[in-house]
Automatic annotation (TrEMBL):
It comes from the Bacteria. PROSITE patterns: PROKAR_LIPOPROTEIN (PS51257). SUPFAM superfamilies: Periplasmic binding protein-like II. This is Lipoprotein. Belongs to the nlpA lipoprotein family. It is found in: Membrane. Gene3D superfamilies: Periplasmic binding protein-like II (3.40.190.10). It comes from Streptomyces longisporoflavus. It is a lipid-anchor. The keyword Lipoprotein applies. Keywords: Lipoprotein, Membrane, Palmitate, Signal. The lineage of its organism: Bacteria, Bacillati, Actinomycetota, Actinomycetes, Kitasatosporales. Residues 1-23 form the signal peptide.
Length: 277
């Protein structure tokens, strides 16, 4: 979902926010009109692609006028929903949303029965072919938003590179690393920029959507990747609290979890994105 909650990232997202909201401005009234078009914010890959498939192949028959607005960061889609510039978004998982709401005072909620897919987080490298090939003192890039950084560290811990303090949960940071046999150094970077760091670091933990945009496959290119089974990081449709029952939202939730969308995900992404329904 990546998808950040850290205020520093909001500065990086400001340009995208200005551009996106200006594009949405003329549709502010229709975003709130339950009989009008449904304006949805999404990150481009795979969320925007999945929504585009729904728009072109399923929405018209269901009587849904769908307008998809793409953003390249993990802050703007939530900010736009909170401010009413778009009605819904599709880009994030529950741990991220919980942390975002807590830190920013927003009140955004998942739409019931609208968890669509999982993007396995993976470790990538241009310098080694196996994770145990990382040398002592190697630098590993991590996404810097709270939940995805913790998720990245857990992936490294699950694969024996580090150990984390007990009970740190979804808020783990490099300060919570209790054992680091290889003396790895961590470079914290805004999630969308992590793929660009691959040439400057020894390895990078990259969110699935940004890996896909960088033409990397979690299924084929990652040294290790998260397992799909029992994973809490499924991406879902979200709205401002109180809007869950909007008839347009219910229509989109049903379409996003339809057999047609599952088939589209399975065929297009070949395991790099996994249907969560």
């Amino acid at each position: 979902m990546r998808n950040t909650a850290k205020i520093t990232t909001a500065v990086l997202a400001a340009g995208a926010l200005t551009l996106g909201l200006s594009a949405c401005g003329s549709d502010k009234d229709s975003a709130a009109d339950k009989d009008g078009k449904l304006v949805v914010a999404a990150t481009p890959t795979p969320q925007g692609e999945i929504l585009d498939y729904v728009k072109k192949n399923l929405a018209k028959k269901a009587g849904l006028d769908l307008d998809v607005r793409e953003f390249t960061d993990y802050v703007t889609p939530n900010t736009a929903v909170e401010q009413g510039e778009v009605f819904a978004n599709y880009f994030q998982h529950k741990p991220y949303l919980d942390d975002f709401n807590k830190k920013n005072g927003t009140d955004i909620v998942p739409v019931p029965n609208a968890t669509v897919h999982l993007e396995p987080l993976g470790v990538y490298s241009k310098s080694v072919k196996k994770l145990d090939g990382l040398k002592k003192g190697a630098t590993v890039a991590l996404p810097n938003d709270t939940t995805n950084e913790a998720r990245a560290l857990k992936l490294l811990a699950d694969n024996g590179l580090i150990e984390l303090k007990k009970g740190v949960g979804y808020e783990a940071t490099p300060k919570d690393v209790s054992k680091n046999p290889k003396n790895l150094k961590f470079k914290e970077i805004e999630a969308a920029q992590v793929p660009r760091s691959l040439g400057d670091v020894d390895a990078a933990v990259i969110n699935g959507n940004y890996a896909l945009e960088a033409k990397l496959s979690p299924a084929k290119d990652a040294l290790v990747a998260e397992p799909a089974k029992g994973n809490p990081y499924g991406n879902f449709l979200a709205v401002k609290k109180g809007d869950e029952s909007d008839p347009r939202v219910k229509k989109l939730a049903k379409l996003l979890t339809s057999p047609e969308v599952k088939k589209f995900i399975d065929e297009k992404y070949d395991g790099a994105v996994v249907a969560a329904f």
